[in-house]
Specification:
Elements lengths: L18 H6 L12 E6 L9 H15 L3 E6 L3 H12 L4 H22 L5 E3 L8 H6 L3 E5 L21 H12 L3 E6 L4 E2 L11 E2 L1 E3 H7 L8 H9 L5 E6 L5 H6 L6 E4 L1
Parallel strand pairs: 1-2, 1-5, 2-4, 3-4, 5-9, 8-10
Antiparallel strand pairs: 6-7, 9-10
Helix pairs in contact: 3-4, 6-8, 7-8
Amino acid sequence: MGNRHELENKLKGESLVRKGLMKSHAHIKPIRLIPDLHVIKIGGHGTMDYGREVVIPLVQELGELSRNHKLLVVTGGGVRVRHILDIGIDLGMPTGVLAELAGKISEQNAEIMALLLSPYGGTRIKSDDLLDLPMMLKLGFLPVTHGTPPYGLFEHPPGTGLIPPHRTDTGAFLMAEVLGAQSCILVKNVDGLFTENPFVNPEAKLIPEITAEELLAMDMEDMVLERKLLYLLKDAANLKEVRIVNGHKRGTIIRAMRGEPIGTVIRA
């Protein structure tokens, strides 16, 4: 076997999977690119699909907030994602293909939301534009993007079934983490995380605060957010919590941005 050609560096000859190597970098904190950014994820199923009655007041609230705060609005897909997934699963499409199809739907909602927010500087951006955000925000733009992570055909296989595990909640969280955002707020159609689906069981109890570990240990049948986000939250370097609020009630987003006790906060 010939000699390996090397460049002098601290990782010379490393496999990049050695446990000791990982631990040696654990003390290094990554820079926070936009530490005063608030990532606001607008659910498709819980918000966009309700149309004008819910969306227009929410647009006005976001627009007003953007005058004094740095926001990144992230959209979900909603009912059309469920439709395309239903068809794709029925036809036996692989998980990666389903992820590609679902992403196109959330992109449509991003275009809609950007146009609605245009009076406030709403601007549709794509994943490749994220590193341009610091300058865009300084110029007064209100960036809007879709939440589906760009894994596409490389989407991770789910533990069970075919539905892509990384969807728009997860994508919003990953954007907030890599940008070093101040907060990540998931806007839904319920007051937060409940012990059961409150639309199925009206007696379900609101959980105002919980850790990712505790929530995973509960092994709930149904949740208002994607389970994969909880695993990512445990390992996050910058973002140590996410909050769930009801977008059908005005004022909940600004209260969440201020750190007031509203909705549900899930901590690392």
